[in-house]
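note to self: dont lose this again. the chain is below, predicted strucutre after it. 70 aa total, dont forget to put it in the shared folder this time
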Amino acid sequence: MFLKHLNTVCYTICIVCIIAGVILALSLIWGGWENEFVWKGFLTIGVFFLASALTLSVNKMIEPKVNDRE
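---
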């Protein structure tokens, strides 16, 4: 049960990161490449997305083992 809630949270974080990443990528394209704030925001979103995606993949590997115990 806990893993299902964690998966939902991670999927939500991934979706938000994708949307925010597209917005920041467009601002990089149209606003110029020299804006340091946008680059830091873009990389921060990438880190959050990667962490959520890795958490989802670990949960998918662990999920069958947890279901066997119940």
